[in-house]
Amino acid sequence: MQTPAPVDYARAHSVEQALDLLAQHGGEARLIAGGHSLIPMMRLRIAQPECVIDINDLTELDYIRVTGDHLSIGALTRHKTVLASPVIGEHYAILNDAERVIADPIVRNRGTVGGSLCQADPAEDLSAVLSALRAEVVIRSRTGSRVVPVRELDDGPYQTVLEDAEILTEVRIPIRPGAGSAYEKVERRTGDWAVAAVGAYLVLDGATVRDVGIALAALGVEHGCATEAEDFLRGREITDQTLAEAGRLAAAASRPSPDQRGPVVYKRHLADELTRRALRRAADRAQGRI
Amino acid sequence: MQVRITVNGVEHVNEIESRQLLVHYLRTTLGLTGTHWGCDTSQCGTCVAWLDEEPVKTCTVLAAMADGHRVRTVEGLADGATLDPVQVGFMAEHGLQCGFCTPGMMMTARHLLDHDPDPDEATIREAISGQICRCTGYENIVRAVRHAAGHPSHPAGADPATNGHSAVVGEPSQEVPA
């Protein structure tokens, strides 16, 4: 039986209280919401916090709303809520694509958007989606708040730029009328981490790419973004040839690790193939074909 | 620390270690061993019970997090001697072989049917996709849930425990081959 090491438990009833508790423990406390990453790590003794701070009562962080020209998602929003949201379905098909393949329905009842991002797992799906969309996160401390692009949130595997006494409270995604987006993931079985996955969004003018975002999960790309492929596509038309070149550039930028999910050559192949598929589907959606 | 948790409608107040997982609180502290404990890594789903209104993997929730909340386990499915239609479905369609995954499967099925009274096969398979049947008896599990959907309540006069089948709950089945 795997049991966490002895740990204190505190329940926060406001963001301010959670921040105070974090400050009191000086880096030895961990926030817990869904707990589906933290608790397994605690059982395996990979994580041994002095205290867990339960933030499930912070319903003030559970929301999805349109604010001006962006969509705001509270950090405590559950995956199942994102999946069921008509507002998200309307603007970001990529989020629906991804949420359908994040873990399994029971885990999605508990897991949260903020928790997924802060876990900073290199194979995590939402980080790739939100990187592709050039989303930002709001990070609060006792003295104020700051806004950080999702593309700059991770600081290496399982590390983020959050300080000890900070909380990620919101995700903001720009709304781009006419954009199309898609997420393509290959996994061994339901609920598993990606062997490889690619998220893409496109804004087209006719067939010409006005704006593009491509992010890769589990492929060892720095900050998860295929910037060379993005730069190549901007201003070009979507054709079989340009998609092939974008796929080639994404694969070339990949530095996957060989593991039980597959060798490097297979994962590179997936980087290429999934980049082309995600871009093709994003383009079809932008042009109203699907 | 002290927790106050309402399990199957009964409030329990217990002194526990704050590191205790909900599955072990149910099984060890309360003695409700119907909720099974399987993989320890939230992969298998045999430990599924409801926290408030939703199925969760109880091996990945601290009992402390359930303080002040309601939990429903497989022991809370039947209404006295009257089995839940999901339990009847699992009997009628041979929805279990070894029975290890059954409590979790049934708690998920009950939640599904409460929200979608007539789910198709694909919907059922999606709902149970986070749970593993080590006997690989998925076909019959899906049939069991379909059976429950088709028999949401018991006709007057029928034996609700067996839904017309010959097996008698709590006694050896008459259908066991020699």
Outline the secondary-structure elements.
The complex is a heterodimer of chains A (290) and B (178).
Chain A: E1 8-11, H1 15-25, E2 29-32, H2 38-43, E3 51-54, E4 64-67, E5 70-74, H3 79-84, H4 86-91, H5 93-100, H6 105-108, H7 113-119, H8 125-132, E6 136-141, E7 144-149, E8 167-174, E9 179-187, E10 194-205, E11 208-217, H9 227-233, H10 240-253, H11 264-286
Chain B: E1 2-7, E2 10-15, H1 22-29, E3 48-51, E4 54-57, E5 70-72, H2 85-92, H3 102-115, H4 121-127, H5 138-150
Parallel strand pairs in B: 1-5
Antiparallel strand pairs in B: 1-2, 3-4, 3-5
Can you tell me about this structure?
- With 290 residues, chain A is an alpha+beta fold.
- Chain A has 3 domains: 47 residues, Uridine Diphospho-n-acetylenolpyruvylglucosamine Reductase, domain 2 (2-Layer Sandwich), CATH 3.30.43; 116 residues, Uridine Diphospho-n-acetylenolpyruvylglucosamine Reductase, domain 3 (2-Layer Sandwich); 107 residues, CO dehydrogenase flavoprotein, C-terminal domain (Enolase-like, domain 1, 2-Layer Sandwich).
- In chain A, the strands form 3 sheets. Chain A has a 5-stranded antiparallel beta sheet with strand order 4-5-8-6-7, sandwiched between helices.
- The mean pLDDT of chain A is 95.
- By secondary structure, chain B is of the alpha+beta class.
- Chain B folds into 2 domains: 75 residues, Roll (Ubiquitin-like (UB roll)), CATH 3.10.20.30; 66 residues, [2Fe-2S]-binding domain (DNA polymerase, domain 1, Orthogonal Bundle), CATH 1.10.150.120.
- In chain B, 28% of the residues lie in helices and 13% in strands.
- Chain B contains 5 helices and 5 strands, in the order E-E-H-E-E-E-H-H-H-H.
- Chain B has a 5-stranded mixed beta sheet with strand order 2-1-5-3-4, with helices on one face.
- In chain B, helix 3 packs across helix 5.
- The longest helix of chain B is centred in the middle third of the chain and has 14 residues.
- The radius of gyration of chain B is 17 Å and the shape is globular.
- The relative contact order of chain B is 0.15.
- The C terminus of chain B is likely disordered.
- At the A-B interface, strand 1, helix 2 and helix 6 of A face strand 4 of B.
